[in-house]
Amino acid sequence: MTETETDVETEIVSGVPVHYRDEHVLSPEKDHEQIYDEDRHDNEHLEGLGRTPGATTALYAVASARYLAEKTGMLGDVLREPYTLRTTRDVEATVAALGQHIEALAGVAEGLGVWLDGAHQRGELEEEPAAARAELGKTADLLRRAGMPLREVTLPADRSPALDMETLIAGVIEQLRARGIEVTEVNVFDSQTVWELGEGRHLMLSSEESWDLGFPRGNGESWEPVRFGLSCWYAHPAQVADLVAKKLAERQA
Questions:
Q1: CB contact at 8 A, 191 and 205
Q2: Are 201 and 216 in contact (CB under 8 A)?
């Protein structure tokens, strides 16, 4: 079938003929609305933020702001847990990052004001955004002042358990014992360390940094590995013991 004149609709747009040869399939409005209907890929949009200067769109900016806010809130939550950080060096690094984050948030407030000014100059706002720009500027100033005390943060000397395998082995034994869990023996291999817990159960730390509990199957010739969410060689012994005790209690319930 060949295209005929009746198949084509032509309109003059800004003095240029536009030939509609097919029905519209693209919808900028619907595409823009997906920013607010879909947030599963916010982390991917954050990774692509600013990759090509001048080519960033609302999708990347809004998704990144949303994702950073969510994860920053989550960071605040986990920092309330006793063993999220291991040493005062970790605290120092996090304080420094917090200062950078506050300065970056001040830059976001300023950037929003710059965008509003630009939109006004393009005639895309109904009125001059002076009030909004002033409040955003105040926010940036307040954020910077709020971050200033961080420069004065000093920390006590660190006395956390040493970061060596001997201390880790002993610490896990002692912390498990404090929770009523006895270790019968420990076997150290090249790729894993195993704390035997009796009744065919064991706790294992592998070279892949995974902590697992092992429960016997059948006659005890094989084991069922059970992870409890910890993947870190330098985890605090008390953190390990807390999670092991919780998982054992769940299995017994």
A1: no
A2: yes
